[in-house]
Amino acid sequence: MPPVSEILQLVGLLAVAGCVAGFLAGLFGIGGGAVLVPVFYQAFAMAGVDESIRMKLCVGTSLAIIIPTSLRSFQSHYRRGSVDMKLLRQWILAVPFGAIVSVLVIAYSPSDVLRAAFAVITLLIGLKMLYPGAARWRLGEDLPKNPGLFGVGWLIGLLSGLIGIGGGTLNNTFMTLYNRPIHQAVATSAGVGVLISLPSFVGNIIGGWGHPGLPLFSTGYVNWVAVALIIPITMLIAPLGARAAHAVSDRVLTAGFGIFLLTISARFFYSFF
């Protein structure tokens, strides 16, 4: 049995991580890995988790937490009739397939690959957020047809699974670039999150099963202390962030999230030196 002090240290660090993630999630309207992964990375580093598995643990744990939030969000949006069910049906194989491929990459690739992927993707999204005219960009008047649509779904599943996010940011960008309303994009992203998180959750448990160096109460690359703490804490703290968000304009909020993503990206790039 590990010392009580080690257990308390991990619990304390993750509780702080949950408060930070919850506030930022409420502030920026993002509940997935874009907030959770970097916060977990710092918490697990302070808890002494080896760098070779730290990022894998962050990604796996983040995706486990996304499952209940995505399911609840999808149910709510579905009742309002705002989900593009036709698109989700077309992606019912493509997105999970991409997520499963991401699990294989996580299991057999060095942690550096995941850190690099997270740094690059958050950099690109952050730059888009900071560009005022990005919301008006269009690639077409309607979504592309197969096989292009299948390929996009596969890519969203792959990239989201690699960096531990629910796919909302990527899917929102894709759908709005093809002239879909942002509210429909957000609603559909909840369903995309379910298609990504469920297979990724199972795959990360199998891929990290019995790996030496995992912290207490971990099953594969999922840490249950983090899961049990983060979900209720983020739900408690997120309204405080949301209250702060309503005190500023949309443009200031978007720019703030862009700066946040660029800062996180710089932090991960710096870790290579």
From TrEMBL:
Localization per record: Cell membrane; Membrane
PANTHER family reported for this sequence: MEMBRANE TRANSPORTER PROTEIN HI_0806-RELATED (PTHR43483)
This protein's UniProt keywords: Cell membrane, Membrane, Transmembrane, Transmembrane helix
Similarity section: Belongs to the 4-toluene sulfonate uptake permease (TSUP) (TC 2.A.102) family.
Protein name: Probable membrane transporter protein
Origin superkingdom: Bacteria
Membrane topology reported for the UniProt record: Multi-pass membrane protein
Transmembrane feature ranges: 12-41, 91-108, 113-131, 151-174, 186-209, 221-240, 252-270
InterPro entries recorded: TM_pro_TauE-like
